[in-house]
């Protein structure tokens, strides 16, 4: 059992340190930590700082940092942060009844790519091919 000088470590971190030592002592080496222990570590890292928690608990600093960035508190409940809203999978373009003499449409992707389409006359471009080519170029 490894002990760290607990006199300089806040009591909640020392308590979680004991829980982690108990878990590590009763499970095979490299066994994934339960989510409840990670959530406790994340909460402590938000209060005391990443290094102050990762070091005495012998947790991967980078993994803890990622989890701190991906966990939010809603009231008294800790939960994973919602993912960004998905981009629309379908956009319907409805043309005007009267033929426009000139039209310009600009698109901007979530990755920052831009496409500008400008044409004259009644017949518009082949939208399916244009958008498919653009999406392929974005990858």
Number of strands: 4
Helicity level, as a percent range? 40-55%
The largest sheet is: 2 strands, antiparallel
Mean pLDDT: 77
Shape: rod-shaped
The overall number of domains is: 2
Tell me the series of helices and strands, N- to C-terminal: HHHHEEEEH
Instruction: Report the end-to-end length measured between terminal Cα atoms.
Output: 50 Å
Q: In summary, what is this structure?
A:
The protein has helices at residues 11-26, 35-48, 50-57, 61-69, 127-138, and strands spanning 71-74, 77-80, 102-108, 114-120. The chain is α+β, with helices and mostly antiparallel strands and 139 residues long.
Produce the secondary structure layout:
Elements: H1 11-26, H2 35-48, H3 50-57, H4 61-69, E1 71-74, E2 77-80, E3 102-108, E4 114-120, H5 127-138
Antiparallel strand pairs: 1-2, 3-4
Helix pairs in contact: 1-2, 2-3, 2-4
Q: Can you walk me through this structure?
A:
This protein is of the alpha+beta class and 139 residues long. It has helices at 11-26, 35-48, 50-57, 61-69, 127-138, and strands at 71-74, 77-80, 102-108, 114-120. It is rod-shaped and about 80 Å long. It starts with 10 loop residues before the first helix and ends with a helix. The model has no long low-confidence stretch (mean pLDDT 77).
Please tag this protein with its features:
single chain; 139 residues; alpha+beta; 2 domains; two-stranded antiparallel ribbon; 5 helices; rod-shaped
């Amino acid at each position: 059992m490894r002990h760290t000088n607990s006199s300089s470590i806040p009591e909640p971190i020392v308590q979680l340190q004991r829980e982690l030592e108990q878990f590590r002592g009763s499970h095979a080496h490299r066994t994934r930590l339960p989510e409840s222990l990670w959530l406790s570590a994340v909460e402590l890292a938000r209060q005391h700082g990443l290094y102050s928690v990762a070091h005495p608990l012998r947790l991967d600093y980078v993994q803890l940092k990622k989890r701190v960035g991906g966990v939010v508190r809603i009231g008294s409940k800790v939960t994973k942060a919602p993912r960004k809203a998905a981009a629309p999978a379908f956009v319907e373009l409805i043309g005007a009844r009267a033929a426009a003499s000139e039209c310009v449409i600009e698109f901007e992707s979530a990755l920052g790519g831009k496409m500008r389409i400008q044409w004259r006359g009644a017949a518009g471009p082949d939208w399916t091919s244009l958008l498919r080519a653009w999406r392929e170029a974005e990858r």
